[in-house]
Amino acid sequence: MGSFLDMMEDRCAELQRVGYTNFFVSILIIIGILFSYLLQHYRIISRGTSEGISPYFVLLGVTSANSQFANIIALPQSRADVECCKQVSGLECAAGLLGIAQIGVQWICFAIILVLFLVFFRRDETAPEDEDDDVIDPNQPTWRTAIGVAAACLVHGLLVVIITASLALGAPDYLAMWANILGIMSASLAAIQYVPQIWTTYHLKHAGSLSIPMMCVQTPGGFLFAASLGARLGWAGWSSWGVYVLTAVMQGIVLAMAIGYEWPSHRGHGHEEPATTRPAFNRRTTPRVLPSPGPYSAHLQAYAETQEEIEAALDREAVQGLGENQPLLAPGGIGSSGVR
């Protein structure tokens, strides 16, 4: 207990020497986190689908964010900063808690991605229930997988909260060890977080609903964020800022892949021959001229996103429409005399 009080005195003295450069940089980082994640939220909402985002990327990202937020809350330095707010001014307190605020904002924003991933998950409602597994595209996640990911994230978050609260109330001396465990867990999850997304992007050959502008902001921002936390927590807080170095490196790989796939597609719009990597497609239009909207073509955006899915939906509509394309009162139809 004495060591914690000594640490708190040192932290309080440090908070009273507000570093205004680091303070404003921390504010800019929070604004950058919000802006970058809003770009991702908007991308999913505007496309009306979470296609292209790996469910396992979401799972690893949310569980890593859970662990990271609990980690910084349980760190002795953070707890000392919170206690110091009773002794220092409001500005000094705010400056001391900016590191917690940064990670908290990121945790909330990634949780929103999980919600949007579920809300805009495109289920193939037209597929028969007894459809063979060979017909299902293995690169497309199932609704059962999406629900499993959400349940795992919820269970993980509850366990982290229960264990952290129990140690804080009953055994605070073990909080530092628990914080390091959470930091290692968060760093491990973040290190492999982008592996399933790299695999998904590689097989889709396009970014889908993954926001390239978000990654352009977050990749360099991740290194800046790590430097800011490192300046605040020092080498003792390696478990907090180290995860962002790993995440920035992996995110940079996904960004390079996404730009590599999307760039030829955009260049193809200005040439006579369209790009072959990904067909240009506006989800509000249909590539075929139909005599009248059918059950799928009337709301094509609900069933198709890529060119292949469009063709599959329209072919399915054509098959179901066989035998129904002869109007009752048309010449030769039932109820018609055959004379105009």
UniProtKB/TrEMBL annotation:
The keyword Transmembrane applies. It is found in: Membrane. The keyword 4Fe-4S does not apply. It is a multi-pass membrane protein. The chain crosses the membrane at residues 20-40, 52-74, 94-121, 146-169, 175-195, 207-229, 241-261. Residues 268-288 are annotated as: Disordered. Keywords: Membrane, Transmembrane, Transmembrane helix. Pfam families: PQ-loop. This is PQ loop repeat protein. It comes from Apiospora saccharicola.
